[in-house]
Amino acid sequence: MIRVKGLTKSFGQGGAQTRALKEVSLDIGRGESVAIVGPSGCGKSTLLNVLAGIEPMDEGEVWIGEAALHEMSDKDVSRLRLERMGFVFQSYHLVPVLSALDNVALPLIARGIRQSEANKRAMESLRRVGLSEYAKRHPAELSGGQNQRVAIARAIVGKPDILWADEPTGALDSEAAEQIVGLLDMLNKHDGTTVVTVTHDSGVASQAGRIIRLHNGRVVHDGGMVRC
Ligand SMILES: Nc1ncnc2c1ncn2[C@@H]1O[C@H](COP(=O)(O)OP(=O)(O)OP(=O)(O)O)[C@@H](O)[C@H]1O
Ligand SMILES: [Mg+2]
């Protein structure tokens, strides 16, 4: 499903250059649940953002199924992301002036699906995260955990093959975090969605079937459970 070969990514130039990813190679199979761990600054978010086509890469290859991300135009990458991927961020990234329902419907509207159909699917997605009664609320009227569940509903509304999550529980207390982990696990096991989660939280990491540990831009462990 995801194949990465010799992926390299730097920020800045000359003496101020940061080499965030150095020759990263890995394969993630369809339906896997993978946690990416490692110390702050080791390149976890950069890796996720490059794999999701949010950040351009310098060198290497990234395959998403049959699609060669490294050869695609920005427009095609955006389309791939919209049609096949969902993204959950630590800080939710919801639109404050829109209701929960409208936030969730947004990716479908962007795909050209008409409002009534988008609303129907968004409602179903909110129901799956247990928030159908909160559809009309705005992000400021919801708790952190609820907002993150809205963000998950938005990420899954288009039935993505891959769900990327960057510190999805980073801003939540342990009870809300547990709900989020349970949801991601359900989406992986029930829907067969490939889930890739960046986390500092060993509880979150232990839920994943596989752990990839980065250090200084390189993969230093790939396999079973390790300490975060
Ligand atoms: N836009 C940017 N411009 C310059 N340097 C950047 C940028 N984004 C990341 N970096 C640098 O790249 C390296 C990897 O950053 P990244 O955000 O991927 O780390 P991380 O593992 O996600 O850390 P954290 O756990 O703190 O979120 C760091 O040294 C960081 O300072
Ligand atoms: Mg990060």
Mean pLDDT: 94
- Count of DSSP helices? 7
Tell me the number of structural domains: 1
Query: What level of helicity do the residues show?
Result: 25-40%
Termini separation:
25 Å
Task: Write structural notes for this entry.
This protein has helices spanning 44-51, 74-84, 100-110, 115-128, 144-156, 174-191, 202-207; strands spanning 2-11, 18-28, 33-37, 59-64, 67-68, 85-89, 162-166, 194-198, 210-215, 218-223. With 228 residues, the protein is of the alpha/beta class. The protein starts with a strand and ends in a 5-residue tail after the last strand. The protein is built from seven helices and ten strands. The strands form two sheets. Strands 6-7-8-3-9-10 form a six-stranded mixed beta sheet, sandwiched between helices. It has a four-stranded antiparallel beta sheet with strand order 2-1-4-5, covered by helices on one side. The protein has one domain (33-53, 74-223): Rossmann fold, CATH 3.40.50.300. Helix 3 (100-110) packs across helix 4 and helix 4 (115-128) packs across helix 5 (144-156). The site of magnesium ion (MG) has 2 residues, from helix 1. The site of magnesium ion has 2 residues, from helix 1.
